[in-house]
Please model this.
Amino acid sequence: MKIEGASVFVTGGASGLGEATVRALAARGARVAIYDLPRSKGAELEKELGPAARFLAGDVTDEGQVNDALDAAIAAFGPLRGLVNCAGIGSASRTVGKDAEPFRLDVFRRTIEVNLIGTFNVIRLAAAVMQNNPPAASGERGIIVNTASVAAFEGQIGQAAYAATKAAVAGMTLPMARELARFGIRCVAIAPGTFQTAMVGQIPQDIQDSLGKQVPFPQRLGQPREFAQLVQNIFELPMLNGETIRLDGAIRMGPQ
Model:
């Protein structure tokens, strides 16, 4: 997929991994729709990036809002060629806490709703649009990149809900790649390790330093620009399809 001139839709695009992806793609000549919540800094990012970006406010779990945003992105930038799903939330709670209280079911449901159902909602609606694109010379019509996590494979204590969602994102990537192949649409997932995002930034610095030292090499937290670099590589490498790629410095998370 040629990045220059491509129209790309990035969920969770106003912060963290999504923001880094928006910046990297725009710098390479893509036209990027930043899809994020109204309270995000998407408008500021659009203003900074200028004509290369458009902020579209909405919730990934809302079918109508996603459809409206996709329509607006296509009207502004032309046929949708890329989707990068970065929207997500974290939740940390034991199945049965130290006070003997069970995990709140509403928190579990909300984590599933945003991280899994929200991701799938955007994929299904974007793929329905991409299938009608004129094919490139290679026959490719689109590329979908999802965000899983190393928690999908080594979820830690307190990550039952989060790990379940990320394991599901990884698990659905290959079946969707096989199904969408008939349209010339690729589907790939990235499973980041511990990255320097706003979520991690809320952790005390000494704990952040400790997390970084757990990474075999390089012995530090991942940088969002490195995630964005991998997104670009996926776009440009047509044989890469149906895979979940760990981006983690060879870390294997312990129980806690």
